[in-house]
Write a structure and sequence with these properties.
Elements (H helix, E strand, L loop, with lengths): L1 H6 L5 H13 L3 H4 L3 H23 L4 H41 L1 E5 L5 E5 L8 E3 L7 E5 L2 E5 L1
Antiparallel strand pairs: 1-2, 1-3, 3-4, 4-5
């Protein structure tokens, strides 16, 4: 149970590393066009970074500009990281669901009354399945839904 809990956690190393990489890839302004607020923050980051270099070149104090620039860059990177992390988690869940779907077995009730274990992917409309071992409760497959028959 603990192992399963850990594997479904959002803080998996693989997902984190992909999210960090994704947060830098998403700095591309063409990708940020989908999120105009973060695009404006990124433009502000670029401008304040330029101001820091101009202040250093001209010999002025650059502490405030540097602090603003760092905060802007942190905001953009953190936003991109959170988005990439959510995408990674979503992809991991989709993969998990696909795997579960292909591994799920159903007990098919044959016309002669015998039961046969088959992959859930092989069920078709009209099949009658038993919901549990020696269960009196059965269901009838109707498209993507099941009809419970007591």
């Amino acid at each position: 149970m603990t192992e399963k809990k850990l594997s479904s956690s959002i803080w998996q190393t693989k997902i984190i590393l992909l999210a960090i990489k994704g947060s830098f890839i998403k700095l591309n302004p063409a990708l940020l066009l989908k999120n105009p607020v973060m695009l404006v923050v990124e433009i502000g980051s670029m401008l304040t970074t330029l101001m820091v270099f101009l202040d250093i070149y001209s010999g002025k104090s650059f502490g405030l500009d540097l602090q603003l620039s760092l905060w802007f860059w942190f905001t953009v990177l953190f936003s991109n990281f959170a988005e990439a992390l959510a995408e990674g988690k979503g992809k991991a869940q989709a993969d998990s669901l696909r795997k579960t779907r292909s591994e799920t077995l159903a007990t098919l009730l044959l016309e002669n009354g015998n039961k046969e274990k088959v992959s859930a992917l092989l069920l078709k409309k009209g099949d009658v399945v038993v919901t549990g071992e020696n269960a009196a409760l059965g269901c009838f497959v109707v498209g993507f839904y099941t009809w419970i028959d007591n």
